[in-house]
Amino acid sequence: LAGTQELTILLVKQIGKLDRDMTDQLDIYTAAAMMLAHPPLGYISYEDIVKCKSLTYENINESMDCWGLALLENLVSIGVRNSNIPSLGFKAAPWLKNLSIKDSTLGDMDISGNPELENLHFKEVSLRSLEATHNPRLSSIEFEYSDMTPDLESVVLGPGVKGFGIMNAKSLEILDCSDATSLAYLSFPNCSVRRLDLSRTQVGHLEIRQNPIDELLLPDGLETLFFNMCSGAISYLKIGSRTRTVTVSGLTLEELDLDEAVNLSSLYCCNNMLKGLDISHIQMPSYFLFGGNPGVDGVFEIKVSSSDFETARTLYEGLQWDMEDYGIIVTHIVSGE
């Protein structure tokens, strides 16, 4: 074991061939001491160590570069438990696929040297920032909290990340997805994100709740949007051509741009600051609610095509209609429901 002191702080799982009286979890420090003290007994061999596929760090209170992992070419999973680590990195194991950290406090964390990483999971972890920009195979990043308040402030997602989830991280203000071209799933309720650029992502379903959003750029492929109960100062939102369901409520929206929303089938836009809506160029959504918007001088104006006149008339009895060249305008609303 010369030159492998790193292994003295590793708890090894699935280590290969063990003595029948040993458990499936072995303290390497104890095992190494046994080997050195009684080599003829052969409790565990060097060959057994390098076959290790899964390791767990526990009760670590110092920075680690984990250089000893370079010996473990079969290693695919690492766990960190109950530790306080100022600086952590796993560049010595570029083949690592799974990383799970629980009940720990981390200072700096570097995963830039792990291009094969596929899953990253945090549970009850204190971590200020995370950058995942050099992990082309990373399919999922998940933060889970129940007993502590997250203190994450910044997350940068790169081209390989496919999914990201966190909730109740009130300190999270920066969620950079501008280069996350593979991102398909995103969830971050009750955080403090103000600007979100998803224009280059693959997100198809998006739900945003309780974030102070000031600016939101949506992806072209978005099919479903739920955006409500947010306290930001967003005033403009553009809906793309593939979006079918839109729910935007309790916002400061003054303009909802539907110029390209030709496939829209459901629209709920109550309790915003909208002045009016123009849906004259698309088929009227089968589900359409717009109450609680101020309009202009008390009049909320809705433009619909002439082909939708009878449908609209049936849905909104009591409205006053004026015919124009481009179709029909709802010029006065008795009830928005």
Tell me what you see in this structure.
With 337 residues, this protein is mainly beta. Helix content is 7%, strand content 35%. The chain is built from 3 helices and 26 strands. The chain has helices spanning 28-37, 46-50, 309-315; strands spanning 11-13, 25-27, 54-58, 77-81, 84-89, 98-110, 119-126, 129-132, 140-144, 154-157, 163-165, 174-176, 185-187, 195-197, 205-209, 215-217, 224-228, 236-238, 245-249, 255-257, 266-268, 276-279, 287-289, 301-304, 320-324, 327-332. The strands form 6 sheets. Strands 1, 2, 3, 4, 5, 6, 7, 9, 11 and 13 form a 10-stranded mixed beta sheet that branches. A 5-stranded parallel beta sheet has the order 15-17-19-21-23, with no helix packed on it. It has a 4-stranded mixed beta sheet with strand order 22-24-26-25, with no helix packed on it. Strand 25 and strand 26 (327-332) form a beta hairpin. The chain starts with 10 loop residues before the first strand and ends in a 5-residue tail after the last strand. The relative contact order is 0.06.
